[in-house]
Design a protein that fits this description.
- InterPro entries: F-box_dom, LRR_dom_sf.
- By secondary structure, this protein is an alpha/beta fold.
- Among the domains are: about 110 residues, no CATH class; about 160 residues, no CATH class.
- Helix content is about 35%, strand content about 20%.
- It has 21 helices and 18 strands.
- The strands form 4 sheets. The protein has a 9-stranded mixed beta sheet with strand order 3-4-5-6-7-8-9-11-10. Strands 12-13-15-17-18 form a 5-stranded parallel beta sheet. A two-stranded parallel sheet has the order 1-2.
- Helix 12 links the parallel strand 7 and strand 8.
- Helix 10 runs parallel beside helix 12.
- The chain is flat and about 85 Å long.
- The termini are far apart.
């Protein structure tokens, strides 16, 4: 007799399916899903996936990589693929949210856990996404999350969908969610991140009839109709005012608290934002964080009072962080910070501001309310007057007119005591070079410390600023673990990874991104200079 072996993949599909039907379907899914396309198609057969039992799935307390991989495969790959097949679901309570967000389950009619009465009990929900994933994946994930939450949870009162604001999305996150299928009309408090102004208007179309607190982060201020009619601004504004603002007036009048943060600059402040804000006649608290461009004047207290705040008789709290940029002024008619502040003072607002003018007579004004209680602040320049900002953890500093000097960085370290992520953009060399700074007799007492700084970005900078931060004769960075820098700058400042003065601030680096994706020479000195970088197999771009 000849000995022979038969690989399971050598069997025809019909025989394999008959074998699979005699086995526990969850054992099949755990062990075979993800091996190859053929097996995926077979184990995802509707006859094998009508009933799903996840009670044996290791709980969230099991943190080894094997169980974590199994869980991620189930929730991120398997359930989104088979959710249309599922008729019966059994799942641990700790996995409820992940199951909910993985699919729609249109055919689900039996579940010991996920059923209508349970969903109806959920009144408060906060969603956090901390994983490092691509923008495209995040966008797809959020579209699914938004759709499921707004259509499945019928008794929500408080919903916080707080997403890292560094993600920028290319399309509406309400895709496929018409207002007539929104079941979460009971929401009274909503925090959410969305793509553009069209998303905002969609949520205000009457589907959220009980909403009184609305905190929204947008990437852009525009809608698709406006983009198509950009050549005819007057015609668009007439359409916009008649079909958008008037249709959402009832929802806007109901709001008591409104916060708007827009990441990118906008030229549509007067045409889009102001008309909407004027409809919020019952507002009691307003927060605005905006970058505004293409105006003929800076936004000041008079403009805000006359065009917005006058329409809000019940308003008692107004917080703002507003930049007006690229405003052209005659050289003899430039407003000073004192001119801007006096108007706010006359209107009863406690604020601070600074103004910059470039070589082309273009002005930039940054005005913000005090005390500053927001968690983010608009990018600052070398004219920033300082202050105390206890909530700011992420900061972008830039300037195209003046350099950043050592004393300015000392001021920044005091103004932002909990800063953990700093990005610099300034190609102007320092007036006092780092070497001259070191030779000052008072230097020992002037070393700056950023006690909590974890990430430093030197994307578009003069090499002086790399020296400023990496040399421990200028700056102490006890927690620095991630650096974005030009490779040639790093080589020069560290003297080809041999210099002792920069070794201490580099010793804890676990991740380096080199600007422009240059190829690096990984010498022995390189590995010795960054010991944690080597052992953690971190990313070299």
């Amino acid at each position: 007799m000849n000995n022979s072996t038969v690989n399971i993949l050598d069997l025809p599909d019909e025989i394999l399916l008959n074998i699979f039907k005699t086995l526990n379907n969850m054992d099949l899914l755990y062990s075979l899903f993800g091996i190859n396309k053929r097996l995926d198609n077979m184990v995802c057969d509707i006859n094998l996936t009508r009933s799903i039992n996840l009670m044996m799935l290791p709980s969230n307390r099991a943190i080894d990589w094997r169980t974590s991989t199994i869980r991620d495969r189930i929730f991120m790959q398997l359930l989104p693929r088979i959710h249309n097949n599922v008729e019966c679901f059994t799942v641990q309570g700790c996995f409820f949210l992940r199951v909910l967000l993985a699919g729609n389950y249109p055919n689900l009619h039996e579940s010991p856990f996920i059923h209508t009465s349970f969903l109806h009990q959920i009144t408060d929900l906060a969603v956090r996404i901390s994983d490092k994933i691509t923008n495209e994946s995040m966008e797809t994930l959020l579209i699914g999350i938004y759709k499921n939450i707004f259509t499945i949870l019928t008794n929500l009162k408080y919903l916080d969908l707080n997403v890292n604001d560094t993600y920028a999305f290319g399309k509406s996150l309400l895709k496929g969610l018409p207002s007539n299928i929104c079941c979460s009309s009971s929401i009274v408090h909503l925090r959410i991140k969305m793509n553009n102004f069209e998303d905002f208007l969609s949520l205000m179309d009457g589907r959220l009839s009980q909403l009184h607190t609305f905190i929204i982060d947008l990437d852009y201020i525009y809608d698709t109709c406006y983009a198509a009619l950009r050549f005819n601004r007057r015609r668009f504004n007439m359409r916009y005012l008649s079909s958008s603002v008037l249709n959402i007036a009832k929802t806007l009048r109901r709001l008591k608290c409104f916060s708007l943060y827009v990441y990118h600059s906008t030229a549509e402040f007067d045409s889009h934002i102001v008309p909407v804000l004027r409809r919020m006649s019952n507002l009691e608290q307003l927060t605005l964080s905006l970058r505004i461009r293409e105006r003929t004047s800076f936004i000041d207290g008079t403009h805000l009072h006359n065009y917005i705040l006058n329409s809000m008789p019940h308003l008692h709290s107004f917080f703002f962080d507003i930049v007006t940029e690229r405003v052209r002024f005659d050289q003899h008619l430039r407003p000073s910070p004192g001119d801007i502040l006096s108007i706010f003072t006359e209107r009863g607002y406690n604020a601070n501001c600074y103004v910059n003018y470039d070589h082309h007579d273009l002005g930039r004004c940054h005005v913000y309310s005090l005390p500053f209680n927001m968690e983010r602040i608009r990018p600052i320049t070398g004219s920033f007057p300082g202050g105390r900002f206890m909530n700011i953890r992420v900061l972008h500093m830039f300037d195209i007119v003046q350099s950043f000097e050592h004393e300015f960085f000392a001021q920044i370290s005091l103004s932002f005591p909990v800063l953990n992520h700093l990005t610099l953009s300034n190609t102007i060399s320092k007036n006092v070079t780092p070497l001259q700074q070191i030779l000052k007799p008072e230097n020992a007492s002037s070393i700056i410390e950023f006690s909590h700084l974890v990430e430093l970005g030197c994307f578009d900078v003069h090499i002086d600023y790399v020296e400023q931060f990496l040399s421990n004769l200028n700056t102490r960075l006890p927690c620095l673990s991630k650096l974005h820098v030009k490779y040639e700058h790093l080589v020069t400042v560290t003297e080809n990874f041999t210099r002792n003065a920069t070794r201490i601030n580099c010793a804890k680096l676990k991740h380096i991104d080199f600007v422009y994706n240059v190829k690096i020479m990984r010498s022995k000195n390189f590995y010795l200079y960054f010991p944690l970088l080597y052992h953690h197999k971190s990313h070299y771009s």
